[in-house]
Amino acid sequence: MILKEDRYFFEGGIDPLDLAGKYDCPLYVYDGAVIERQYRRMVNAFQVPRLRINYACKALTNISVLRLFKSLGACLDAVSIQEVQLGLKAGFEPREISFTPNGVNIDEIMEGAELGVKIHIDNISILEQFGHLRPDYPIGIRINPHILAGGNAKISTGHLDSKFGISVHQLPHVLRLAETLKLKVEGIHMHTGSDILDAEAFLQAAEILLNAAYQFEDLDYVDFGSGFKVPYRPGDISTDIDEFGARISTRFNQFCKDYEKDLCLVFEPGKFLVSEAGYFLVRVNVVKPTPATVFAGVDSGLNHLIRPMFYNSYHHMTNLSNPAGKPRIYTVVGYICETDTFGVNRQIPEIREGDILCFHNAGAYCYTMSSNYNSRFRPAEILLYQGRDHLIRKRETMEDLLHNQVDIGILSKVSV
């Protein structure tokens, strides 16, 4: 978003205030140009014979966004059978979808196999069950490298106590099962966590995964997951994807030489591809001074954007209606009957009732984690693409809330 003559504009010259007027608030807006830029950055960072970028669609599953990634040449990372089905509806071929669920029963895994997608198995019990049922079906093995990495304990997935993946120390057991059941292991996979600050931690985990890969005779790919950090605050640090790409490419090319086969290098970015593309527009309902602070209450809450409450995440805020106003200190809160605080003691140009605020980095794990708590409607979603705004999800209505409810017709009159 660009500030020009005391007005903010999206890339391509679209005024966010015009969007707020046209579609109302609260409103999610995604900039397709930013998504394309991030995808190209990812592809250009790695110099290897074979590269595959699987968009981690749990970050943002709108089917129009999925179609955009398909048009760019991306494949898909799905973690539920429903995400698999969304991917197929968006036009991805079955083998362009990697299915990496966690804690599901064998029926969901078998459904993925029936659909023909790539499957990653992350526990020995399911590996053994699947091996008895479909020993002919190629699979990938998700390894837990026991590396503590990630910007928050809730998004660190590769450490010793994590529920994700098969412990690297259980690799001999996996190899025995593979040999006994004649399993076709085509890939090996890991994911250490999100918002990784230390690239060395990622590279250390990569080394563990490559050492494990040597134990399998006929792999087709090695999947390093993702976890690349994007900037949230002004001046914030982020993963230097070009430096990281150069280092991992050198190591991976050497691995392929030693393995005597050009394997496919796979990554599964979600936040890196869509976080910075997303903006969440809200309207200020009330400015409420108290003896301790000044609250700016907006027409949204943890039902629409739970990350600040759930992860203690930071989302930069701008006042779109009054960018040249005198900076003042506000605590920005929602309208839910909970303590749903978006930001504490934020310095923002003077906020007036009716102003439109923008929360940045709202593309990843924002709408997808929304709910109908307090029976509030979910907001609309807009995609900006090639200079035009496109409605890609309608705002919910009361009919949507009642759609799957069943009124059993209990009489309101109660006998005493």
Topology record:
Layout: E1 2-4, E2 7-9, H1 16-23, E3 27-31, H2 32-44, E4 51-56, H3 63-72, E5 75-78, H4 81-89, E6 97-99, H5 106-115, E7 118-121, H6 124-133, E8 139-144, E9 166-167, H7 171-181, E10 185-189, H8 199-213, E11 221-223, H9 241-259, E12 264-267, H10 271-274, E13 278-289, E14 294-298, H11 307-310, E15 317-319, E16 327-333, E17 341-349, E18 356-359, E19 380-385, E20 388-393, H12 398-402
Parallel strand pairs: 3-19, 4-5, 4-12, 5-6, 6-7, 7-8, 8-9, 8-10, 10-11, 11-12, 14-16
Antiparallel strand pairs: 1-2, 3-13, 13-14, 13-18, 15-18, 16-17, 19-20
> In terms of structural class, how would the helical and strand content be classed?
alpha/beta
Q: Would you identify the regions where 5 or more consecutive residues have pLDDT less than 50? A: 149-159
Percent helix: 25-40%
From the alpha carbons, calculate the radius of gyration and give it in angstroms: 23 Å
- CATH class designation of the largest domain: Alpha Beta
Q: Which architecture name of the largest domain does CATH use?
A: Alpha-Beta Barrel
| Domain tally | 2
Could you tell me the CATH topology label of the largest domain: TIM Barrel
User: How would you state the average pLDDT, rounded?
Assistant: 92
User: How many beta-strand elements?
Assistant: 20
Q: Report the span from N to C terminus.
A: 63 Å
Corresponding CATH superfamily of the largest domain: Alanine racemase
Major β-sheet profile:
9 strands, mixed
Q: How big a fraction of the residues is strand?
A: 15-25%
Figure out the total of helices: 12
- Large-scale geometry: globular
